């Protein structure tokens, strides 16, 4: 209530004081006041009992600031809502504008509260839909509540980053959740995924896209979306958006190799030692650029270094790893080692 307290009895019915009353309720709206706080603040402002009721929402509230109750002066809002003041004696000059703004604030705040509650409910239902622990009947009920048919095709997406922006691209039918312990990754359910999603994804956001499966199999699509997310990165040679059904044999590698298995690969261990050296991060950036471009000069342009510097970095890395990147199969071996290291550091 700090900064909001004023008393109606001390105000004249002039334009300046009308603006002060409007500002009083605007600050309550901006502060996302709850219905109880709104009624209490109005009663304190008006110095008489105030109330709010909306049978459709099951709300009936009244606040008495220590003043005697009188005849009700009522305003309606929305379809079924009412607000009122109970003043003994003659109305004060600003009672009408108080009631008008009280009704407006009630309409805005209750609608906002309902929207927030709907979003929370949808998030819980979407989390249930992708949970492998939910029974099929329970999952089907959750999908229907989200307006998805259990037998209709549905994509699960694993989103790390700006989920709200991704939902904006996917359209109003998409639903988001934050299931289980994967705090940095959110699940999104969508009946369709635009072919150009990668070009419409905001910077700093990574997305793994699961296949379109019957909604009742959403946990399977969600698992594959999380697997696809492991193949994404921001700025080091892998795309920011990956579809699981385009991974081919790489999906089997991700599914079967645990981080502890990858740690035993000699080439990955060699890359770790190389990364720990002075300027090791720069060398690894060069290796990624070389694998992505297949050329020393193109790699130099990609990382903004002179090609002779790139050649020296590559020669140093070849000595550390023990094989030539230019020999048959050498670049493929390096590319695989870099990918395995990335997968180890991006567990599901």
List descriptors.
CdaR-like_regulators; 348 residues; elongated; single chain; disordered N terminus; six-stranded mixed β-sheet; LysR family transcriptional regulator; PucR_C-HTH_dom; 3 domains; Arc Repressor Mutant, subunit A; PucR_C-HTH_sf; alpha+beta; four-stranded antiparallel β-sheet; Beta-Lactamase
What features would you describe in this structure?
The chain has 348 residues and is of the alpha+beta class. It has 3 domains: 8-112, Beta-Lactamase; 130-247, no CATH class; 259-345, Arc Repressor Mutant, subunit A. Helices cover 50% and strands 14% of the residues. The chain has 14 helices and 10 strands. It has helices spanning 15-30, 35-46, 95-129, 136-145, 163-170, 197-200, 218-229, 249-256, 259-262, 266-276, 280-293, 296-303, 307-321, 330-345; strands at residues 50-54, 59-63, 71-77, 81-87, 153-160, 175-177, 186-190, 206-209, 213-214, 241-243. Strands 5, 6, 7, 8, 9 and 10 form a 6-stranded mixed beta sheet that branches. It comes from Actinomadura verrucosospora. Residues 284-339 form the PucR C-terminal helix-turn-helix domain. InterPro entries: CdaR-like_regulators, PucR_C-HTH_dom, PucR_C-HTH_sf. Pfam families: HTH_30.
Domains counted in the coordinates: how many? 3
Spans of at least 5 consecutive residues with low confidence: 1-5
* SSE-based structural type: alpha+beta
| Biggest sheet architecture | 6 strands, mixed
Provide mean pLDDT, rounded: 84
Estimated share of beta-strand residues: 5-15%
**Helix coverage percent:** 40-55%
| Gyration radius over CA | 30 Å
Number of helical elements: 14
Q: Give the H and E element order.
A: HHEEEEHHEHEEHEEHEHHHHHHH
- Number of separate strands: 10
Give the terminus-to-terminus CA distance. Answer: 46 Å
The coarse overall form would be: elongated
Domain PucR C-terminal helix-turn-helix: 284-339
Pfam families: HTH_30
Protein name: LysR family transcriptional regulator
Organism: Actinomadura verrucosospora
């Amino acid at each position: 209530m700090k900064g909001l307290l004023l008393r109606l009895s001390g105000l004249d019915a002039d334009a300046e004081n009308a603006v002060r009353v409007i500002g009083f309720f605007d600050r309550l709206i901006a502060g996302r006041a709850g219905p109880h706080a709104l009624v209490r603040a109005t009663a304190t402002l008006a110095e008489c009992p105030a109330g709010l009721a909306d049978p459709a929402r099951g709300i009936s509230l009244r606040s008495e600031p220590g003043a005697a109750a009188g005849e009700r002066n009522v305003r309606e809002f929305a379809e079924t809502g009412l607000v009122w003041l109970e003043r003994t004696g003659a109305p004060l000059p600003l009672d009408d504008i108080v009631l008008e703004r009280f009704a407006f604030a009630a309409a805005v705040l209750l609608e906002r509260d309902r929207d927030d509650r709907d979003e929370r409910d949808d998030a819980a239902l979407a989390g249930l839909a992708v949970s492998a622990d939910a029974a099929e009947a329970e999952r089907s009920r959750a999908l229907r509540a989200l307006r998805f048919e259990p037998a209709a095709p549905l994509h699960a997406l694993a989103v790390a980053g700006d989920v709200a922006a991704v939902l904006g691209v996917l359209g109003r039918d998409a639903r988001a959740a934050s299931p289980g312990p994967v705090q940095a990754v959110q699940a999104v359910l969508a009946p369709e995924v635009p072919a150009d999603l990668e070009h419409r994804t905001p910077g700093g956001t990574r997305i793994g896209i699961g296949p379109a499966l019957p909604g009742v199999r959403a946990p399977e699509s969600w698992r594959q979306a999380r697997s696809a997310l492991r193949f994404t990165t921001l700025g080091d040679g892998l795309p920011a958006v990956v579809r699981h059904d385009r991974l081919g044999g790489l999906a089997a590698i991700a599914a079967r190799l645990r981080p502890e298995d990858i740690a035993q690969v000699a080439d990955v261990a060699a890359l770790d030692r190389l990364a720990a050296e002075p300027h090791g991060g720069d060398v690894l950036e060069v290796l990624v650029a070389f694998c992505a471009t297949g050329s020393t000069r193109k790699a130099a342009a990609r990382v903004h270094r002179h090609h002779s510097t790139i050649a020296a970095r590559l020669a140093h890395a070849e000595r550390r790893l023990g094989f030539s990147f230019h020999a048959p199969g050498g670049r493929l071996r390096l590319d695989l080692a870099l990918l395995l290291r990335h997968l180890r550091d991006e567990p599901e």
